[in-house]
Amino acid sequence: MPRFPTKGAGVPQRTWSDKRERQYEHIKEGLRERGRSEDTAEEIAARTVNKERARSGEARRRSRTSTKDISSGRRGGLRSHHGSGGRTYEQLYQEARRRGIPGRSKMNKRQLERAVDRKTGRRG
Question: Taking the CA of residue 30 as centre, how many other CA atoms within 13 Å lie in the half-sphere pointing to its CB?
């Protein structure tokens, strides 16, 4: 994996604000605690911070997916709610609404989950 040019204590970019440096360290530490390698944690943290910078207009260049996709915080939140019952009916309904799934008001939770997963390409 590529190594990034570093500033000080391993933070990849000179252009990052103190807030983004703290965010990078926080993400990296969390990934390390979950068993990711140092290199992988650094890469994921840097990509996440850069995406957030693009979304908020801090970066000079940004890809369409960085600005149009759901935020990394929201994505993480969605993934964290897959406990015993998965996403709630309300979460599924709102996701179906955002994705323009027809007939969603007449669907039950299981039907919504399947429709949303089909629309997003998830298997499950």
Answer: 10
Q: How many helices (H) and strands (E) does the chain have?
A: 6, 0
Residue-wise pLDDT for 46-77, tens only, equals: 888 888 888 777 777 766 666 666 666 666 66
83 membership: H or E segment, kind and range: none
Integer CA distances (angstroms), 110 to 18, 34, 115, 123, in order? 44, 30, 9, 14
* Residue 15 vs residues 29, 77, 119: alpha-carbon distances, Å: 21, 28, 37
pTM higher than 0.70, yes or no? no
Q: pLDDT by residue (tens digit) across 74-114?
A: 666 666 655 556 788 888 999 999 999 999 999 999 999 99
User: Dihedral through CA 6, CA 7, CA 13, CA 14, nearest 10?
Assistant: -150
CB 71 within 8 A of CB 49: no
